[in-house]
Amino acid sequence: MTTFVKVTIPKRNQVLFEGRVLPTTDSMATSGEFNKEITCEGLLAFLHDSTQDYYALANNDLKSFLQHMIDVHNRQVDAFKKIKLGQVTVTSPSDNVYKSIDDSKTTYETIKDKLITKYGGEIRLRHEPDGLYLDYMPEIAIQSNQEIRLASNLLSIKRAIDPSAMYSIIKPLGARAETTMQAEEGESDISQPRLTIETVNAGSPFLISQKLVDQIGRVVHSEVWDDVKVAAILKSKGQAMLDSQREIKEQFQATAVDLSLLSGMTVDSFECGNYYQTINPLMGIDERLRIVGQSLDLCEPLNSTLSIGDKLLGQADYEALIKKQGEAIDEIKSRVAAQTAKIVTISNELGEIGSIKEAQSTQDELIKELQEQVQKLQEQTVGDQYYEGSIIDVSEFQGTIDWSKVVNAGLALSVIRVQSGSSHIDTKYSTNITNAISAGANYAVYAYFAATDPSDATVEANDFYNRTKAVVGSSKEPRFWMIDVEADSTRGTLSSSVTAYMNKLNSLGIPDSKIVIYVSNALYPSIDARRTMIWIPSYGINDGTIANSTKPKYPYDLWQYTSKGVVDGITENTVDMSTQPSDRFKKSYLVKG
User: Fold this and answer.
1) Those residues with Cβ within 8 angstroms of residue 130's Cβ, 6 or more apart along the chain or in another chain
2) How many C-beta atoms lie closer than 10 Å to residue 230's C-beta?
3) Per-residue confidence (pLDDT) for residue 178, from 0 to 100
4) Cβ–Cβ < 8 Å for 69, 110
5) N or C: which terminus of the chain has fewer CB atoms within 10 Å of its end residue's CB?
6) Cα→Cα distances 498→192, 491, 494, 536, Å
């Protein structure tokens, strides 16, 4: 309740969320994995930290009414929770409204009950250099220029239409009679019944829409107008409400890429409350819709789930929507039919020349059969030349390793750590490389990436190369040089820093074909995965078995499935183990020789 969190986009100087941490939830899975779930609430929650006093005001100045509530709030709370009144542009009806407050509700509940529910509008608490300001406006939104468009930045969208609040019959109710009947002594007064429309509606208190009855059946709704004391006026208001009801809720759940997070893009970012042109011709959507909810993925910030719309449709709007969807479907069918006709035409044309190709078919089949036989022979020959067994990576944490036992137990590949950043040299790397070569192990080398920027990455790559070469000398070269990218230490320059690291290795004579990137699922989208092979850790339960491990989310050439592996010859600790090398990985790094 006193720890605060702020989520920002630094390069845009934009605050996405600011609020406080609620009591956390701790849990532990059967695997022993411990989790702490942290939930935050926005600054508007400060209005729940105070209660209101009894108060009555007989005027229609909403600004003074709200100011009074803020004054009461400020007298009760900590200094950092105190609020100043900002913009107030909502107005009350022209008639004089008697406003009162009881002392049983929080400030937030009172504002919602006495202002928002009655007069509409929205509130916002904004953090300015001189403190917090509360705005009360009809709508707090910006009409954004950024589009949410299919085949551009819209990844998926789901429309939900909820007609459950619709009704086909309305029962209008007016004011109560001025007099009351006194109940028995000690009991409260019993109010008179409300005004109905029976005297002006053929004895019936109901207004019926037969069109809606035919569609949804007989669904009755009552509506109260406390200020109406004339039956004819009450009937008029009821009929108008029945005819213009807007009670079908329509909302979209969309996943879209926030283009503002991409370098070089000058478009608006997604913000709750703002309107965006949303376009998906296949669903008949092309209109400005409002974001009413947003889920932020802090590990993969380009992914943002948005709740869009939450608007109310009238019956006519609803029917127009259905018609628009039907037209969109008809257009798709038409396009498919035209494409099918084109394919049929091409097929007929091919049929005319089919007889010419028949003469070649026997020869083509024979060639294909011979090619398959040659491929099988090649696979049989090469298959015996692969290293078979465990794929492990080791460092000083495995202590002293008996490399002869490791190799004899069945070793396909061992990747040996040389350094962690430039500042820490692995204390066992020299011994491990020398003894692995002596034992005839198939080996590679790796360095933990800890660079702070591209320049620092170049230094790390240079040290990685020189330290490895100093030990290897003229002996057997490592099969590849792996860059271990497990955390982003670059303050937002990870992609360019990893690229600089690879470029430096290139300049020292290590081509991309001899470089492998080990990268976590979370950081995979932040690097260029096209230049070289990718090795991804993904554990699941992490009990040393493949069966209880979870495959990586992204394409990989090697999958590290556990850190709990056990290998003969390594006794001081468990070891990371990997599996499922791709064909190109096997042909590049696991072929004997």
Assistant:
1) none
2) 12
3) 59
4) yes
5) C
6) 79, 13, 6, 16
Rg (the chain; Cα; Å): 36
- The CA distance from 248 to 481, in Å, is 61
DSSP 135-165: EEES----EEEEEEEBTTTEEEEEEEEE-TT
Dig out the tokens for 427 from the structure: 């204390």
Q: Per CATH, which fold does 390-589 belong to? A: TIM Barrel (3.20.20)
User: What is the pLDDT at residue 90?
Assistant: 86
The amino acid at residue 385 is: Q
Is the Cβ–Cβ distance between 480 and 558 less than 8 Å?
no
pTM over 0.70: no
DSSP code, position 142:
-
Residues 558, 580 contacting (CB under 8 angstroms): yes
Give the model's pLDDT for residue 482: 97
Q: What are the structure tokens assigned to 134, written together? A: 């509360």
The rounded distance, in Å, linking the Cα atoms of 173 and 206 is 10
Do the strands 285-296 and 303-313 form a parallel or antiparallel pair, or are they unpaired? antiparallel
Taking a C-beta distance cutoff of 8 angstroms, is the pair 57, 99 a contact?
A: yes
Residue 540's region, left for phi above 0, alpha for psi from -120 to 50, else beta, is: left
- Measured CA to CA in angstroms, residue 337 lies from 119, 325, 331, 342, 348 at distances of 53, 18, 10, 9, 17
CB 152 within 8 A of CB 256: no
Q: Reduce the DSSP state of residue 65 to 3 states and report it.
A: helix
3-state secondary structure of 427: coil
Which amino acid appears at position 534 of this protein?
Answer: I
User: Buried b / exposed e across 264-285, counting CB within 10 Å, b at 16+?
Assistant: eeeebbbbeebbbbbbbeebbb
Residue holding tokens 């406003």?
99
Q: What is the CATH number of domain 143-164+247-313?
A: 2.30.300.10
Beta bridge partners of 361: none
Q: What is the mean pLDDT of each run of 10 residues along the chain (593 residues)?
A: 86 81 84 84 93 74 87 94 93 60 85 84 90 91 81 79 75 75 45 86 92 82 86 90 69 77 63 84 80 76 71 60 68 74 69 53 56 50 70 95 94 96 95 95 96 95 96 93 94 91 94 95 89 93 89 92 93 93 91 81
Rounded to a whole number, what is the distance in angstroms from the first to the last CA of the chain?
Answer: 63
Domain ranges, ordered by start, for the chain: 4-137, 143-164+247-313, 169-177+191-243, 326-384, 390-589
CA distances from 481 to 387, 468, 497 (A): 18, 10, 16
pLDDT tens digits, one per residue of 528-571? 888 999 999 999 889 888 888 999 988 999 999 999 999 999 99
- pLDDT (0 to 100) of residue 328: 66
Please give the distance of CA 549 from its chain centroid, rounded to a whole number: 24
pLDDT of residue 435: 96
Quote the DSSP letter at residue 524. Answer: G
Residues 455-492: tens digit of each pLDDT:
999 999 999 999 999 999 989 999 999 999 999 999 88
Taking 3-state DSSP, the helix, strand and coil percentages for the chain, each rounded to the nearest 5, stand at 35, 30, 35
DSSP calls for 242-280: HHT---EEEEEEEEEE-GGGSTT--SPPP-TT-EEEEEE
